[in-house]
Amino acid sequence: MIFANNKILAFVFLLITQSVFGQMQLKLTVEMPNCKNEEFLLLQGDEGGTFVIDKTDVSENGILSFSWEGNYGFYRLLGENEKIDFMISTPDFHFSLEGKPEGGVLRFPDNDKNNKFHYYLSVFEALNRNIEDLREKLNALNKRDSSYKELRSQFKNVQKEKKVLVKDLWRSHIDEWPARMALAQQELMPDFKLKGKDYDDYLQKHFFDYFTFSDSVLQATPIYYEKIGKFLKAQHIDDLIKAESYEKIKEVINKLFWLTELEPTSQKYLANYLMNRYSEKDHPEIYHVTVDAYKVMNTCEYVMGNKVIQNRMQNSYLNNTGWVVPDVPLNNSLDGKIQSLSDVNSDLTLLIIWSGSCIHSREMLERINDLYPEYHELGLEVVAVSLDNNLNYWQQMVSQNYYPWVNACDTDGLNGVTAEQFNIYVTPSMFLIDPSLKTVAVPQTFFQLEKELMEFFK
């Protein structure tokens, strides 16, 4: 077979590197005799949320089977109103279900930790169900009713039983993922006396008591994103959106970012999830609130006059898809042939404005360097404009890190033409630009950048 051009060859190589070197062939088989002909989705999480790998029906023989290229980790089977979470740790994974997912009996291979995980979940589910049933009965009774005192005692005992289990798992088994993943799905239930706002306040205050945003096993799983979604629901986010209460929405989103314990990976996943859920096209106000909250902790901000910063922040909202970028000069370009953005000859240009003193900039360039060879063959060029004032320092940084793309430096920094024209107040800042200098996308994270590149060059 002869490829017509290098772009096709490079794209095939890119697909091979992603599928062969980054993933493995996985198979899942589930015996579900009580779920014949029912459809199930196989879900997994990534840096931007939960996505569907595949869907299929349970066969007439009661067998559900999936085969795909992926990695070990947490997955979810989702039925019409039912779900099963599990950890895959072998290429040919199997388990069985007697009954329906809700209330049925799951059996995993001997010594598989999924058995312990689902045991913990089943105990919690029984306790939570009992608590809710007793709450409803107590709220329907008058304090003078003969059964009120007995039911109240039962309610407190069940609540205490749940607290004891939570504390035991937290203290004695927290080093094991089954305990951490089961605890991550739990909330401390308010006392039955609390209603309305008091109920909501208690629930929200303790919502993440046993959920660790920085837990690498929990991060980017369906459970992780489901918990965040439940928190947004508990904060009545949909009602706030309908009422266009953007100040309150800002409070909710900022609160979520602070709850991540300022852990960079958690904030990255949270930002990607929120930007996917509330896209710039459908919810521009919420999208930009998310971007601003993310930038506070994950970019390098610079001290300038308050009015200048405010103007640039406000104007940066206009730097979206379709914006024709200014043809700024590429000062001190290390490529003598390229002196401005319009001199770049590529199907797509990634402009990244950065600083050598900014750790977030250096980390982003390192990740871009990893994908550059493959996408460069497809038609991507990177133009990295530094805002460093010291020319020698910048040249050493470029040389030491072997940045192979177009490198330039505006030594006027934040007061220079580049920063002013692109409304830069943080680094790194990225723009994907087509040959006509029209903005294709303004990615805020590496996940968004990679997603846009794959979409453009598919």
Q: How would you characterize this protein structure?
A:
The chain has 458 residues and is of the alpha+beta class. The protein folds into three domains: 19-112, Carboxypeptidase-like, regulatory domain (Immunoglobulin-like, Sandwich); 116-234; 300-456, Glutaredoxin (3-Layer(aba) Sandwich). The protein has 15 helices and 15 strands. It has helices spanning 6-21, 114-140, 148-172, 177-183, 196-205, 222-234, 237-242, 246-259, 264-277, 284-298, 306-316, 359-378, 391-401, 417-421, 446-456, and strands at residues 24-31, 39-46, 49-57, 63-70, 73-78, 83-88, 92-98, 105-107, 300-301, 348-354, 380-386, 406-409, 426-427, 429-433, 439-441. The strands form four sheets. A five-stranded mixed beta sheet has the order 12-11-10-14-15, with helices on one face. The protein has a four-stranded mixed beta sheet with strand order 4-1-7-8. Strand 11 (380-386), helix 13 (391-401) and strand 12 (406-409) form a beta-alpha-beta unit. Helix 1 (6-21) packs across helix 12, helix 2 packs antiparallel against helix 3 (148-172) and helix 2 (114-140) runs parallel beside helix 4. The chain is globular. Residues 124-168 form a coiled coil. Keywords: Coiled coil. Residues 319-458 form the Thioredoxin domain. InterPro entries: Thioredoxin-like_fold, Thioredoxin-like_sf, Thioredoxin_domain, Thioredoxin_ResA/DsbE_sf. This is Thioredoxin domain-containing protein.
